[in-house]
Automatic annotation (TrEMBL):
The active site is at D33. Its EC number is 3.2.1.4. Residues 1-20 form the signal peptide. The keyword Transferase does not apply. It comes from Hyaloscypha variabilis (strain UAMH 11265 / GT02V1 / F). This is Cellulase. Pfam families: Glyco_hydro_45 (PF02015). Residues 28-39 form the Glycosyl hydrolases family 45 active site domain.
């Protein structure tokens, strides 16, 4: 059946969106700066009905309803990264988490709240998969880089962890790279310990492993924590 030209033109944006799924090879780094995520502001993307920008929390790790609240990494700010945006293991070979992302050919509006399946290609993680939702970006990220949000991963350019959690002035461990041993996680706030241990348990202490990646439907378990769902995005409701 041939469709009228007017119908084909109307459907074109949906065809383009379907073909715009990102994939390629990339690298991972890690960070946890405790700052409000850049995808936590309104107006960055079109949201699904009932959704919201990436959730932020107050100094007591309680969710904020004011999405216009200034970042705790700015003077007078009150919005911080929520502890539940730490990564977690689904199985021995699959995990979920969040990341600051920069992908070639895209912009923040195409990355924010999109999900990517990262398949590790370097030892010791070959055969493991991490699905992340983009909650942040950064001017210091290179093309096809996923800066994994892992407590104790280093504060990088900004440090809200001292204000929120009483961390040392340069964050826990090195400013870039964070803590270097599992035992260093023992002194973390209880809400962040599991996320810190994740790097040394599920990730086996890997240091910036390489990946192949492809954009996928966001698992419902991930969006339930971030609160953010892109308009017209499919959600994977498979139980985890």
């Amino acid at each position: 059946m041939l469709l009228p030209k007017s119908v084909l033109l109307a459907l074109l944006p949906f065809f383009l969106q379907a073909n715009a799924q990102s994939s390629g090879t990339g690298k991972t780094t890690r960070y946890w700066d405790c700052c409000k995520a850049s995808c936590g502001w309104t107006g960055k993307i079109s949201l699904a009905s009932g959704s919201n920008p990436v959730s932020s929390c107050d100094k007591n790790d309680q969710p904020l309803s004011d999405y216009g609240a200034k970042s705790g990494c700015e003077s007078g700010g009150s919005a911080y990264m929520c502890s539940n945006q730490s990564p977690w293991a689904v199985s021995d070979t699959l995990a979920y988490g969040y990341a600051a992302t920069t992908i070639a050919g895209g912009t923040e509006s195409s990355w924010c709240c999109a999900c990517y399946e990262l398949t590790f290609t370097s030892a010791p993680l070959v055969g493991k998969t991490l699905i992340v939702q983009t909650t942040n970006t950064g001017s210091d990220l290179s093309s096809n880089q996923f800066d994994l949000a892992i407590p104790g991963g280093g504060v990088g350019q900004f440090n809200g962890c001292t204000n929120e959690w009483g961390a040392p002035s340069q964050g826990w461990g090195l400013q870039y790279g964070g803590v270097s041993s599992r035992s260093a996680c023992d002194s973390f706030p209880s809400a962040l310990k599991a996320g810190c241990y994740f790097r040394f348990d599920w990730m086996e202490g890997a240091d910036n492993p390489l990946v192949t990646f492809k954009q996928v439907a966001c698992p419902a378990a991930i969006t339930a924590k971030s609160g953010c769902v892109r308009a017209n995005d499919a959600i994977n409701e498979a139980p985890t």
